[in-house]
Backbone:
């Protein structure tokens, strides 16, 4: 799909509903390119994500969505183009540096620590824990004890935020798959992430937990965080997303409001397999 005209039409429609106050762009890609052998997985992608908004990336399998997440988090390096975080280039930085800057990612396979408790899973994400330094623990034990108490209180707050406080002392592996995703989000919050990249957050989650998950996502964006999600559930996109980018063959083929993009007959044909 190569629909430059359609993309321009979508952008023009979207711009007409943007409020007068200029958006705060937290994360931006400019002409991003990534090749794997003879396959161009990301082909000159330019897009931006705003603070306080939920942006969905949709498209058929192989469209380049997950590769884009890999690029944004530093897991792989782009062949060309720029990634800007708060206006500063970050392409090429290692993943741990990107995470420390405030860009967190929820993986499809969650990646919790199954043998740690739910609370401990959140505690390990807390930055600057001076108790990990032997000399500080030896010569300033009161400081360490106080910081550990503060960290525990803060981690408990994040667990309460995602509705897992009653499971704090249970091993993480005892949680359901959906609860493990909530735990992973609490861990991102504990790490101080203000950009949340959520890769298929509702996949494999029961409907009741999906409702809670979407409420949390709305609350986080409403609090000023930047939320970007890859999602195949059309109802979820329509429910929670403020903006939608439709990717196809490594390119941005359409952009706009969810209802506009997902009702487009070309998008429906490629993404949903539906024909007008």
Residues:
């Amino acid at each position: 799909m190569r629909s430059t005209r359609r993309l321009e039409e979508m952008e023009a429609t979207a711009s007409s509903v943007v409020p007068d106050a200029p958006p705060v762009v937290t994360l931006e890609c400019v002409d991003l390119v990534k090749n794997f052998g003879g396959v161009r997985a990301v082909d000159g992608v330019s897009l931006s994500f705003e603070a306080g908004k939920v942006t969905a990336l949709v498209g058929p399998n192989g469209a380049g969505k997950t590769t884009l997440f890999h690029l944004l988090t530093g897991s792989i390096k782009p062949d060309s183009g720029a990634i800007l975080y708060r206006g500063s280039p970050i392409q090429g930085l290692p993943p741990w540096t990107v995470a420390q800057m405030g860009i967190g990612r929820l993986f499809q396979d969650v990646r919790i620590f199954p043998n740690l408790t739910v609370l401990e899973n959140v505690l390990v994400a807390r930055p600057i824990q001076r108790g990990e330094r032997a000399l500080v623990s030896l010569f300033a034990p009161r400081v360490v004890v106080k910081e550990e108490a503060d960290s525990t209180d803060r981690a408990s707050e994040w667990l309460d935020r995602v509705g897992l406080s009653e499971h704090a002392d249970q091993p993480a592996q005892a949680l359901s798959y959906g609860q493990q995703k909530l735990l992973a989000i609490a861990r991102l919050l504990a790490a101080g992430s203000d950009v949340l990249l959520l890769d298929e957050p509702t996949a494999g989650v029961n409907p009741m937990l999906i409702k809670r998950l979407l409420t949390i996502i709305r609350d986080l964006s409403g609090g000023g965080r930047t939320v970007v999600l890859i999602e195949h559930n059309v109802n979820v996109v329509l429910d929670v997303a403020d903006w939608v980018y439709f990717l196809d063959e490594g390119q941005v083929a359409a952009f706009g409001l969810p209802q506009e993009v997902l009702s487009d007959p070309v998008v429906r044909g490629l993404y949903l397999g539906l024909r007008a």
Summary: The first strand starts at residue 25 and ends at 36. The chain has eleven helices and ten strands. Strands lie at 25-36, 39-50, 54-58, 80-85, 88-89, 103-106, 195-199, 226-230, 243-248, 251-256.
